[in-house]
User: Fold Pentacotripeptide-repeat region of PRORP domain-containing protein from Carpinus fangiana.
Amino acid sequence: MYGKCGRIEEGLGVFRSMKQKNVFTWNALIKGLAKSGEDAIWWFNRMEQEGFKADEVTVIGVLCACSHSGLVDTGQQIFGSLIDGKYGFSPSIKHYACMVDLYARAGCLEDASKLIRDMPFEPTRAMWGSLLAGSRDQGDLEFSEFAAWKLVVLEPKNSAYYVVLSNLYAEMGRWRDVEKVRIMMNERGLRKDLGCSSVEPGPQEDVYEI
Assistant:
């Protein structure tokens, strides 16, 4: 609760005062520190030192913390340990989504794309959304186009993705493609929503749901 409200110090105080801790209280702490990556990692290590075994939620929280703080090497190490069986369970699609987001935020677009391509799951909207946002931040129009088309295929009735494509083609000076996207929208009965000129929300918004 304190983490969600941004009252981290109060949350830490409550946590320290607990006479009995379990994996759920540790997970709540790590999740609350998600935007303070180094702190989340420190407490994760402390959790292991005190003999608590991380579960699926713990690893998701730590990978999210790495994503927020650009801790690529640390995230890779933890994800590698997960794949190697250190934690006693296999990575889920949520863990892969966290890693895609980590790579995309850090500008490691090739790594993000490769992970999506090689993973044993079908890519989700969240993954393509992460890649789209990361490639836009890096000014990589080709990667942006690739991710935007994947989103169009996944959700052909979502006008926001067509708007992003149209804007990308305009930036590239590909006016024929701008017109093709407009025609496609008309054929599918879609209209440009004035509030949807971009699909680059923050991690708490829908496109990044894991």
In short: Residues 200-210 have pLDDT under 50 and may be disordered. Residues 1-91 form one domain. Residues 100 and 112 are 5 Å apart (CA to CA). The chain has two domains: 1-91, 127-210.
